[in-house]
Amino acid sequence: MAPILIALMLIGLSAAVGGWLMQKVGQPAVLGELLVGIAIGNVAYWLREPIITVVREGDLARQIADYALRHAVSLVGAAQKLSPPGPGTARLVAALAGAAGPRAISVDLFVDQLSRLAVIFLLFLVGLETSVTEMRKVGQRSFLVALVGVVCPMALGLGAMALLMPGSTPAHDLFIGGILTATSVGITARVFHDLGVTRTTEARIVLGAAVVDDVLGLLVLAVVTALVVDGTVSFWGVLGITLKAVIFLFGSIAAGLWLTPRLVPRIRRMGFRNVRLLFGLGLAFVLSWLATRIGLATIVGAFAAGLILERFFTQELEDEHSLREVLSPLESLVVPVFFVLMGLQVKLETFLDWRTVELAAVLTAVAVAGKLVAGPAAGRGVSWLSIGVGMLPRGEVGLIFASIGRALGVVSDKLFSAVVLMVVVTTLVTPPLLRLLMKREEQHAEGAGAAVSG
Amino acid sequence: MAPILIALMLIGLSAAVGGWLMQKVGQPAVLGELLVGIAIGNVAYWLREPIITVVREGDLARQIADYALRHAVSLVGAAQKLSPPGPGTARLVAALAGAAGPRAISVDLFVDQLSRLAVIFLLFLVGLETSVTEMRKVGQRSFLVALVGVVCPMALGLGAMALLMPGSTPAHDLFIGGILTATSVGITARVFHDLGVTRTTEARIVLGAAVVDDVLGLLVLAVVTALVVDGTVSFWGVLGITLKAVIFLFGSIAAGLWLTPRLVPRIRRMGFRNVRLLFGLGLAFVLSWLATRIGLATIVGAFAAGLILERFFTQELEDEHSLREVLSPLESLVVPVFFVLMGLQVKLETFLDWRTVELAAVLTAVAVAGKLVAGPAAGRGVSWLSIGVGMLPRGEVGLIFASIGRALGVVSDKLFSAVVLMVVVTTLVTPPLLRLLMKREEQHAEGAGAAVSG
Which of A37, A120, B172, B311 is 20 to 30 A away from residue B354, measured at CA? Predict the structure, then answer.
């Protein structure tokens, strides 16, 4: 029991401290959780702390445990067989030896499962904050910005992969392209809110586009995940999976919107306690599980559940304590597990290899360029640059993409480090840049106003 | 990921349905969670469902996994080596074979860790509902009832063990005696509340005694756990551990009460978010971890943390959203995991052995008799029977005792089944009996009143 308690305390503390530090410098808390995770993971590895050394390996550690459980070898034997040659293997073998090995594995399994639940929970919350009704209203400009902001990074990503990793498979390249497409609406919304400019045309276009981008990004994820699992890419394959994902997303939302108002009041009348909470998370779990069953990512289901309940709860039960509010304590406990764990798994030593630095630089450049060119899609009369910058942060969605890719085996340690760096940079630059741009806009508008009145 | 989602959905659903059924018949929800767990566990075992077959084995499954990870054998080999001979072993081996084995083990590890966290959380909540100030005021009568209600079941339990299991060690017998001492204040409080008699002398004596019993029970648990780990029982050993437990409990409470009002406002001023929640659970985790470090049960620390914060938050921050309220959604999600899991691990086939039935009957009789004789300790002028019956339910504390005993290896499958049956029976009979007694008291009082006024 003790190692799990320490692990959870460590995660909670690092999330709190990281979030607090970032808040002080006007950055999103997510970034702090990620950076503290990176710091702890690498320092602990350097100090040869066994449990974090194992957790840091992520999926490899779980493959080793699986192998040791299924074959007549110990953890150490499995590690020697499955780890790639390198100085890391000796440390991993040392960490897995003796009584500490199973303990480290059990912490790793627990934290990994918890972080997967955290991701389901996070996308459920994103869904809960996304309004289907408003999404219908965002209009052509937001939709165009979102579409260009998904197509361009994907195309640029494919090009970059063809140049940097000429030997990789099309499915692999499409997956990396997919990582580059996601926009994190939360970070941009926060900056707009902090600046008090949520009602400007630019902000509304960006927020609308980010929401559409969430849905498009999930569709892209669904498709590239299935392609990686299949191993081949064909036109009909892509079309089939896209159709399946679209049908699942819209079908489950339609079914959910029809069922929920019929089920919830009935369950409530029967006298069940905590209906809102249990039904909400239950729906998120059921749809996540269904999504996995038909070969899509769990988070597609979680997001759909959030969308369904946003509509149901805001429209039908306005008088109640909001579900969002009830979930808030759970959010602050569970969600940081994912971000700290992602940080822990960034191996700084991979940057000693020049290729990783190159990869990170190219990915970041492509990620920035791909979204900046989405600005002009907003049309005339608005600041293209503000819109492009507003679409920059990859935040949680990019990380979830990368973690799924790691579990599927398409994202190597080097690529993972490069992706996290890309996420950190795009997230880091957005708040100050956006503040600068929006303030200049304002002064510009004031200047124009003064000229008119003068 | 999918099996964990199904497991959590199953636990959530069974807890909701079980709790709802019990509420309908005027019984505590805990009982429903336990009974639904028993039903699912045994039906799934009968249907040879692999994951529940593994989870049902509890600690044995984890020992098998640990062995397979540390030695050059597979899960199947380890199961054949470690399982006791019997028809259960063949099923367990079948459940652990192939790719399903590691999956079942990972579900078992996750659910087990989650249930341990649930217990920490539960005792933290019990602590949060226990007022140190009120405990000081409960007076001599409550204290005497609690003391007799701890000493008598322990003494009777030791006697019963000497008769039924003459070969067992003193540490083992003391542990079983310890299981019999716990009173669950929650269930009794609920019944009194439902009847609207919380302000009668009987109710106040019982509630006071149940709170004192919580503390005494934890001290007993601390001592017997340490004795089992040591393996020997000596007068000085018992005295030493008792002192250590008392010093830990009172020392940590004193330190906590001194530190908390100095730390929390400072942390809050620094601008951390969710201070109450993170500090609360953080303190519970730190004290639980400290308790394990010095050889006590984790829950002693969790309870101490609850006591500290009850005092701090109710006295110093009355204006705020209560911590109890913030934790309520988390409680309804996490705590049932423990009760459903306890139910899952009750093997009904153990009752095919006459010795288990005998054991369950004797334990239940001793548990009832030991608390009923505590009634007269309340002195004159009150209904001794109502007080004795009010002290009957073992509820969560007895189960936690039993689960710790299982992990320590002093509580066998048969004994565990017998203990759970004892907990179910003592919890089941309390609400109807207490209702009957309190109503008779009332009629009696009314009759006397009518006689006086007439």
Answer: B172
